[in-house]
Amino acid sequence: MKARMWTRWVVFIVVAVVINFPVIATLVTAFKSPGEVSRNPSLWIEAPTLENFAVVLTISDRLNIYHYLWNSVSAAVIGSVLPVIVAFPVAWVMVRRGVGRGLLFPLVVNLRALPLIIFAIPLYMMYAAIGLLDTRFGLGLILAVVNLPLSLMLLANAVADIPLELEEAARMDGARLPRLLFKVVLPLCRPALITTFIFGFITGWNEFLFGLMMTSRDAVPVTVGASFFFATSGGGVQWGVAAAVMIIAALPPLLLGLIMYRRITGSMVAGAVKG
Amino acid sequence: MTSRKTSENAILLSPMVAFLLAILGFPVVLSLVYGFSETTFQTLTSPSFSGLENFRDVMNDAAFWKAAWFSLKFGVITATLQCVLGLAIAVYLAPLVRQHGWTVAILIIPMIVAPAMMGLMYRLVLHEFAGPIPHYFYSWLGWSPSFLGPANVFSTVVVAETLQWTPFAFLLFLTAYNQIPTEMKEAAAVDGTRPWRRFLKIEFPLMVPTVFVALFIRFIDGFRVFDNIYTLVGAGPGGATTSMSIYIYETFLRRGEIGKAMAAAILLFLAAFLLLTLAQRLVGRRAS
Amino acid sequence: MKRSAKLLAMTAMASLLAGHAHAEVTVLGWPGGPEEAALRAVTEIYNAKADVAPENKVELLFTSRDGFFDKLQIDLAAGTKAFDVNLIATYSIGKYAPFMEPITLSGEAETVFGGTVLKTMQYEGAQYGVPTDLSLHFLYVRSDLIDALLADEAAKARYSEIAEKHLGEKLEPKNPQDWTWKDFVANALYFSKSVNPDSPTRYGTVIQAKNLLFNMMVFHSWPRSYGANWMDDQGNITVDSEAYRTALKMAKMLFELGATPQDSTSYEYAEANAAYSSGQVAAMVQWNAAASDLKGAQSATVSFAPPAGPDGRFTHIHGLGLGLNKASDNTEGARAFLSWLSTEEAALAYARAGGAPGLAGATAGKLADERPDLVQVGDYASNYGFVMNGGTSQNALSVYEAQAKEFTGYWAGTQDLDAAMTNITASMTELLK
């Protein structure tokens, strides 16, 4: 068993390097000066510099990275929590009672296949009329629509995995529906809920087109804000600065993944022991 | 009893339905109107009814079918690759991951980079003079493939998409694999069943539902691919990398043929609806 | 203690509100680069004027360059009030004109900019914008390479040999200011390792051929110098011409013989410049905006007007400018700003802050010492500048896009020249009817 672990480490390292190669290259580029980016394409940095990060973090006359980050955090939280809240009861009703399986489920899930940006114009007009344009809340609501299909799919899958006996036992004990849902089903779904939230947060965080179309000043998310930095000298892409802003923009979801992962593993291990 | 159940169901369904109606109700209705009208950016408030004209236009547009074929091919290939790789990695590395949880965080990093930014990064990484990959090809082999040239551009975008989203499949499979009761695995191990047989006979069958879910999600996501391809190579030389989403986006915004774009979206939605319903039937039959 | 806290709170409130309290004319500008810096500078001058009422002060708004025109399309079509004045470009005036209002320029505008430049902001005879920046193309050449070539008899013989083999003519190396497109091609072949293994550079040129409308503009000077146009005066589409075919075929030869980087069918501005900057490319045609970057990376770089063809020497020009959003709440304030922007005072300040306005003789002369490059741009624009027939029509943008799709398809080998010509004629007939 020990010997096998050694080969697993090798496989892990190879996989990690291959799938993360663009990210590694980005990280390397972020520490190169503009001159070095065009002169030295290798992964070795001749003269590491923090100049690019300094540019991103200190330009403040119109580009404010902190503001964009905050906008993204708020919109992505709304956009990932809301679908979990509204989809969870639906997932249960669909799986356990078969309601909405034939029409509602495919209707919602297939929204994922559409480029939702085609709804941009009516959404824009509607938002302008009710004052949601260029607000974090408004953007968050759209991100919630974007995330709804996947949330519903994952939660339905999770509910289906819960052994029916557990629910029936609770029912025997006289638990009413709300109690059953919140005290029995919800805790059992916790890993799935967290996974769904993380996927939703990442998707919301990474969304570009709605962020571009629906904001102009107050609620600009970081994906759009990041692109402001690419051309700070005009015309061409400033690769070093672009790389630095990309790294900064990827940190919050990475942090979330790191923190939340413990919870997922925790729940999974607990589940495994119980099962 | 039944009436209580009915009202319970209604209460459970209503938040999501209300939410969808509030945000998408007006846009969907207006878009349906546009789909059956001649609409441009100048006539947004006064579309003139044109029946099935837009649908005929779309069906007769070679570019639409080319885009559909591209998306289908792209979706099937990337979904298959991602699920095979993701499953293999998840099962093989599961013991390692169980002891060292942080390794998962490393493996899911590609997912957390915005696809649009990933596309931009590949523009640098694959650049013949400024990118590390061609650089090492040239310095070690004196030659480098043309990653984004006409001959290889499809493979390149497939690989880029696969590398970014294999972690998604990996995460789903890892969760499913870890949910398999430990006793079942241990019992088989005690029996002396070889790991491969154990996987095929005991573990894999338990993961089949997750495999379907993963394949389906990855297929849909591959089919609707937009950001990364669009920033990396645009619609491609001669439109060679035009996915369905790129086709609809360009018809809608660049050419301003709003009615036609809506018609294409409606057709796409109907096709997806049909596909999913069929898939559900199929899976349902298998399960029973 | 309490008082100071109160004071602090009030100051904080005031500073929160300050940004919006005075600015009533919002201007959506072209983000990043010299255009933004220049617009900021002139705005400051304008806002400092005593006769500009507080409610007519100008505030600037910038969004992303990526998808800028897509966003603008949605904003305008949905009747946004987020800005009063917005950016327009020569090729997109027709597309956005329905959502904008014609404006009146200051009395000086005609003498400051000249008729040709003002025309880049006109649609169906009406003035829709103040011209702020003018863009055209330069031929950038590494003079160190050319000088070495011209001084080496053996190299010259090799050059002629290559020209004869691929172009059927025994061309001699020449100074770049005298180049025709044939010289450009011969030079590109000579400096490519695939054709001439002794070449000091890997590629003779770089053609940015990603399926992108801007790349078509760079290409356009080539067919134009063979007499190409989009349509004749009767409105017939004339894209399927010997002129277009010749230029397309010559460019295709460069792709096939490996005289431009192997991935260049996926290149845009940034990639092409990076290739040139690496020192592995001998010459290229590129936007004038790239001058400082390219000269900075390769110090021997010299810029000229694009090569000539049988019909003469040409450079595609287009302008950026600012115009009035029809849905604006403060048209009066916006008009006042736009009118001032078209005065000599504003144009000079704009140029001094780094912008690139197309200025007529007398005004440009005042900047001869500070901005000699503007004199060159003005000179090329008036001598070689052109806009295709239909280049400012409602669907001009879509025409460039259709060409990008068909022409790059031909270069990349996904379709032959006849198919490309048939397809582009069909789309342009539809778009320009």
Could you explain the architecture of this structure?
The complex is a heterotrimer of chains A (275), B (288) and C (433). Chain A is an all-alpha fold and 275 residues long. Chain A has one domain (65-274): MetI-like fold (Orthogonal Bundle), CATH 1.10.3720.10. Chain A is 75% helix and 0% strand. Chain A is built from 14 helices and no strands. The longest helix of chain A is centred in the last third of the chain and has 36 residues, at 239-274. Mean pLDDT of chain A is 86; it is low at 266-275. Chain B has twelve helices and two strands; from the N terminus they run αββααααααααααα. Chain B has helices at 2-35, 53-59, 62-99, 102-107, 115-125, 132-141, 153-179, 182-191, 195-223, 227-233, 244-254, 258-287, and strands at 37-38, 48-49. Chain B has a two-stranded antiparallel sheet with strand order 1-2. By secondary structure, chain B is mostly helical. The longest helix of chain C is centred in the N-terminal third of the chain and has 20 residues, at 2-21. Chain C is an alpha/beta fold.
Please sum up the structure shown:
By secondary structure, chain A is mainly alpha-helical.
Oligomeric assembly:
heterotrimer
- Which structural class should the secondary elements of chain B be placed in? mainly alpha
Biggest sheet architecture of chain A: none
Principal-axes shape call of chain A: globular
Largest interface: A-B, 99 and 97 residues
> Would you list the SSEs of chain B in sequence order as H and E?
HEEHHHHHHHHHHH
Structurally, the number of domains of chain A stands at 1
How much is the average pLDDT of chain B?
89
Number of helices of chain A: 14
Largest sheet of chain B: 2 strands, antiparallel
Reported by name, the CATH topology of chain B is MetI-like fold
Structural class of chain A comes to mainly alpha
How do the helices and strands follow one another from N- to C-terminus of chain A?
A: HHHHHHHHHHHHHH
Question: How much helix, percentage-wise, in residues of chain A?
Answer: over 70%
- Report the top-level CATH class of chain A: Mainly Alpha
**Helix count, DSSP H or I runs of 4 or more residues of chain B:** 12
CATH architecture of chain A: Orthogonal Bundle
Mean model confidence by pLDDT of chain A: 86
The parts of chain B where pLDDT drops under 50 for at least 5 residues are none
Give a count of the beta strands of chain A, DSSP E runs of length 2 or more.
0
